[in-house]
Specification:
- By secondary structure, the chain is an alpha+beta fold.
- The protein folds into four domains: 39 residues; 74 residues; 133 residues; 192 residues, MetI-like fold (Orthogonal Bundle), CATH 1.10.3720.10.
- 60% of the residues lie in helices and 13% in strands.
- The chain contains 16 helices and twelve strands.
- The strands form three sheets. Strands 5, 6, 7, 8, 9 and 10 form a six-stranded antiparallel sheet that branches. Strands 1-2-3-4 form a four-stranded antiparallel sheet.
- The chain is flat.
Length: 552
């Protein structure tokens, strides 16, 4: 075939499109592969490496840490930084080690030049302590103390440590339960009494009988609080009984209370199956745990919970509004210049930068609507705002406005695809226009509505910029759903996986320590979006098959 005929046949454009699609797929799968490898690798119990480091002009030292990455640089760069390398050397390899022991060494990570490192050693007794403060501690366990008295050392130390560590974690969970739920519930009831008294005072209904009733209820809550506080003090004192003495690689002995230790393991002595079991436990702890150390350690459960609740509330808001708007535009509105202008506005609204929606949500939803709600329904709480401050409801409403054009366009397209013969057949059988619309046309268009909802969920779950203004925070003190009436607190601030990634990756005081956590959190966000989309897709396919069978 001649070149001119081949060009006119359109084959070049077919190959161009195929190549562009292939490159896009490769890029997407490459990104997902990177997130999967780095994210899942965060939970693996990496080996502890011991080595001697002797750089000319410096005292020889022994290092103990986890190898995070290795990189090859030009030797000239390191010579300019003061590393004594031979002039004839062109390339040099350096390794980034996680040394932990932040409270001892004042640093978590350090680079070491391969030329000055000895062969790597993997001591079986090297131990990792995951602590609730100051990050991990690397070293060797020396002795176990109970009230400053030695209770185990040598070979008996490790099994006794695991037994007492399980006890310490149970006590810590009990402390968390008392502080977070029991005392939190009492404080909520006390604040409710305060607001009840203030409301009665504003309405002129405060009298001696009500004062006495409120005082009696407050006295009962104070008495309950004192009892709970005594129980909490007893559990805290009991949790501080045991401690562990660790010897660092530098020879220093560090005493660590067991109530500050999450878990302890010896990675060099673990078998493959033990590491796999540890990996599963670490992954579950990451999903169900609460963040620590400025979000750089611990779990991400509040962020997952906040993301899911916000998306669900957004879906409940955007679906009816988007569907009703699309039905009106398609079925009832008179075709003309005004309708065309409205459609153009809807399409343009989909292209507005998301941060603009955040500014609008802050100005209109939070300050105008929220402030009005506070003045009308919560005057007793003023000047402290209830809904006049960023929170879950305003974040969901902002995202609903952001994704509304997607739902409208998808629903309109679904309505347009319904054959006119179906409408005419329904009308011919005596159905009214309203009955035809709601009993015939709309059910057949539900798959398109679900498609719009899927696209809305996918965009909303990954948005960050507008949420920073209307309700998402670095660390939320409590979840938006708890056991206190009304159980779902739409006025509370929430955590979000997208903002958590931004905060850990760009605002963390320990950038190297946060790198693996960023990938792990990104992995969970991707998996969450996949789960939400798959759920919506399954519902859409079920509806499509249902109405296809009925129409047949």
């Amino acid at each position: 075939m001649k070149f001119g005929n081949w060009w006119k046949s359109g084959a070049p454009w077919v190959w161009l499109n195929a190549g562009a699609i292939s490159i896009s797929i490769i890029m997407v799968f490459g990104l997902l592969a990177l997130i999967l490898v780095r994210g899942f690798g965060h939970f693996w119990p990496h080996s502890l490496i011991e080595a001697d480091y002797a750089m000319p002009g410096q005292a020889e030292q022994v290092i103990l840490g986890q190898l995070r990455k290795s990189e090859t640089l030009t030797a000239q760069n390191l010579r300019e930084a003061g590393v004594p390398l031979p002039e004839e050397q062109l390339l040099v390899t350096r390794h980034l080690f996680k040394l932990a022991n932040r409270d001892v060494n004042n640093r978590d990570f350090a680079y070491f030049v391969d030329d000055f490192l000895s062969d790597f050693r993997y001591p079986a007794e090297a131990t990792v302590l995951e602590r609730r403060q100051w990050g991990n501690l690397f070293g060797t366990p020396v002795r176990l103390l109970e009230n400053d008295q030695v209770v185990a050392e040598g070979e008996a130390l490790w099994p006794e440590l695991q037994r007492r560590l399980d006890r310490s974690n149970r006590l810590h969970d009990e402390i968390e339960q008392i502080e977070r739920h029991v005392i939190g519930g009492i404080n909520h009831q006390i604040d409710t009494l305060r607001l009840e008294r203030r409301r009665a005072e504003l309405n002129g209904e405060l009298n001696a009988d009500l004062e006495a009733s409120l005082a009696e209820r407050r006295a009962g809550l104070d008495e309950t609080y004192q009892e709970v506080q005594q129980r909490l003090n007893a559990v805290v004192a009991d949790s501080q009984r045991d401690s562990l003495v660790m010897r660092t690689v530098g020879g220093e002995e560090v005493t660590v209370p067991l109530n500050l230790i999450v878990k302890a393991w010896q990675p060099n002595a673990m078998s493959v199956w033990q590491k796999v079991a540890f990996y599963g436990e670490a992954f579950i702890d990451f999903i169900l745990g609460y963040p620590r150390e400025a979000n750089t350690e611990g779990g991400i459960f509040p962020a997952i919970f906040g993301t899911v609740v916000m998306v669900l509330v957004m879906s409940v808001i955007v679906t009816p509004f988007g569907v009703l708007a699309a039905i009106y535009l398609r079925e009832y509105a008179r075709q003309g210049p005004l309708l065309k202008a409205i459609r153009i506005s809807v399409y343009n609204l989909a292209g507005v930068p998301s941060i603009v929606f955040g500014v609008f949500g802050l100005g209109f939803f939070v300050y105008v609507l929220g402030g009005s709600i506070d003045r009308l329904f919560y005057p007793e709480a003023l000047p402290s705002p209830t809904f006049g401050t960023p929170g879950l409801f305003w974040a969901s409403l902002t995202l609903a406005l952001l994704t509304l054009p997607v739902v409208i366009v998808s629903t309109e397209e679904g309505l347009a695809r319904i054959p006119s013969t179906i409408r005419q057949g329904s009308l011919a059988l005596g159905a009214t226009k309203s009955e035809t619309l709601w009993k015939v046309v709309v059910p057949l268009a539900t798959p398109a509505m679900m498609t719009g909802l899927i696209l809305a969920i996918a965009r909303a779950a990954g948005e960050v910029a507008p949420l920073m203004l209307v309700g998402v925070v670095k660390l939320a003190p409590s979840l938006p759903i708890d056991g206190n009436f009304p159980y779902i607190h739409l006025d509370r601030k929430i955590m979000h996986l997208g903002f958590h990634i931004y905060d850990v990756g760009f605002q963390s005081p320990h950038a190297e320590a946060a790198e693996a956590l960023v990938y792990a959190t990104a992995l969970i966000l991707v998996l969450l979006i996949v789960v939400l989309n798959l759920s919506a897709i399954l519902i859409r396919n079920h509806l499509r098959e249902k109405y296809r069978v009925e129409s047949d």
